[in-house]
């Protein structure tokens, strides 16, 4: 059934930003969403996760057939939606491992075997080339931009959602870091996570092969296609390739 967005319209502070947005992200697929600055990409990510600043004026959002259009963010998370922020925030006083342990219990319920959790966390950190000492550090406090983005991917790997919205996870990354993050996304896809990958850069799609590419311009999905659409965008720009 997938992560379904059906004729969605969104308003922010009295201004209509998104119009009639429709797509379905299936488990194990990658939908790349591209568009110029100000096109509404981050608005879409925030609205899908239930940010109270964003008002849904039409359409619906569903997770595997369950309507979450007006659900609270924690209810959406429990339904299986994960959001990786474009600008991850610092959380002083809360260590990475304690945050992830608490989040896991909240999302999945029941008791968590500490040995199993520790092994999962350690394995994910090693795959992302994150030093194990970071597990005891406050979340994102003093982290570089690249380290913050890897921490977002660490959360994705440990929390194991059904669907992940990745809002410009590749921004600010050098080539080596981008390859590490891309490998993490591919592992999530292989494990059955459906991915909505919001990106400016066709380079990211050299490492994460999209199932489909969508173009968002002025709050509307103007075109969808395969990976080659991303290269057309890089060659001629957004407005030249829109029908």
Name given to the CATH architecture of one domain: 3-Layer(aba) Sandwich
The percent range for helix content is 25-40%
Principal-axis shape equals globular
CATH class of one domain: Alpha Beta
Plain-language structure description:
This protein is an alpha/beta fold. The protein has a domain at 3-89 and 162-241: P-loop containing nucleotide triphosphate hydrolases (Rossmann fold), CATH 3.40.50.300. The protein contains 8 helices and 12 strands. The strands form 3 sheets. A 6-stranded mixed β-sheet has the order 6-9-10-3-11-12, with helices on both faces. A 4-stranded antiparallel β-sheet has the order 2-1-4-5. It has a two-stranded antiparallel ribbon with strand order 7-8. Strand 4 and strand 5 (66-67) form a beta hairpin. Helix 3 (96-108) runs parallel beside helix 5 (145-159) and helix 5 runs parallel beside helix 6. The mean pLDDT is 91.
Quick recap:
The chain has 8 helices and 12 strands.
């Amino acid at each position: 059934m997938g992560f379904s967005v059906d004729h969605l319209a969104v308003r922010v502070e009295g201004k209509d930003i998104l119009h009639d947005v429709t797509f379905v992200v299936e488990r194990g697929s990658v939908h790349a969403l591209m568009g110029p600055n100000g096109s509404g990409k981050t608005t879409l990510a925030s609205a899908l996760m239930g940010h109270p600043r964003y008002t849904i004026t039409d359409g619906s959002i569903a997770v595997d057939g369950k309507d979450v259009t007006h659900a609270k963010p924690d209810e959406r998370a429990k339904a299986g939606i994960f959001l990786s922020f474009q600008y991850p925030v610092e959380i002083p006083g809360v260590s990475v491992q304690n945050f992830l342990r608490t989040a896991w219990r909240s999302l999945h319920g029941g008791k968590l075997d500490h040995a199993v959790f520790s092994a999962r966390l350690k394995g994910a950190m090693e795959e992302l080339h994150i030093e194990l000492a970071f597990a005891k550090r406050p979340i994102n406090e003093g982290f570089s931009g690249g380290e913050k983005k890897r921490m977002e991917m660490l959360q994705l790997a440990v929390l194991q959602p059904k669907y992940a919205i990745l809002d410009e996870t590749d921004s600010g990354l050098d080539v080596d870091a981008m390859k590490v993050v891309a490998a993490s996304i591919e592992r999530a896809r292989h494990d059955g996570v459906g991915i909505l990958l919001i990106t400016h850069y066709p380079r990211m799609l050299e490492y994460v092969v999209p199932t489909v590419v969508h173009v968002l311009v002025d709050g509307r999905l103007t075109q969808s296609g395969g990976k080659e659409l991303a290269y057309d965008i890089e060659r001629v720009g957004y407005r030249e390739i829109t029908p």
